[in-house]
Amino acid sequence: MAEVVQAGLWGLVAGSALLLGAALGYGLRVPQKVIAIVMAFGAGVLISAVSFELVGEAYEQAGLAPAAVGTLVGALAYTGGNVWLARRGARHRKRSGRDRAQAQPSEAEQGGSGTALALGALLDGVPESAVIGVSLLDGGAVSLVTVAAVFISNVPEGLSSSAGMKKAGRTKGYVFGVWATIAAASTVSAVLGYTVVGSFSPAVIAAVTAVAAGAILAMIADTMIPEAFDEAHLAIGLVTVSGFLVSFALSHT
């Protein structure tokens, strides 16, 4: 199978977890602590993948400077986008809406918040998917650890966010339309990560990988950890470390 097709398929697999989570969050009353525990586990998995599969790989390819600068640029870019979207109604896009003070606003409460939520989901998902395509550049085989990390983290993201969208009065068509679009964007991002980034020099590839790593790490700290902590603060450390160790073990087998 052509590697570009593989990139697209793996991106779709990872993105489809958002739809799975959305279906669970919209159709079932999943306990808040369960959502929080899965979110914390997914955060730990992603932290490990960022450390060993992304930043570590960037360092090995191009040294400390491109890896460090790229990671900082990615974090700055994500934070800037996140601040802009937060002011337009997407601050609590990963919140399930149980706490009214942290609920997603309806369109009537804040016009344009629906678009901001969709753009926020795109901001969260694109860097994760792009690195799946980039991982194919190293020997022609996708990093299954990266795919697993993105998939595991996407389930609670889609679950919690879709529950919050439902409570904010978003229609079923809107909720699943958003996540279907993000799943499609994940496919495209993985393809572009392979085709576009693959034409660059190793140093540039390393820097781009680090940029994605910085964006993902900022996303974990800004959105995933706070949601998990609110509902499972006594267990979040242990659960996050468990996710980290599972991903670490997978990357070293």
Automatic annotation (TrEMBL):
The chain crosses the membrane at residues 6-27, 34-52, 64-85, 174-194, 200-220, 232-250. The keyword Metal-binding does not apply. Residues 93-112 are annotated as: Disordered. It comes from the Bacteria. The keyword rRNA-binding does not apply. Keywords: Membrane, Transmembrane, Transmembrane helix. This is ZIP family zinc transporter. It comes from Streptomyces africanus.
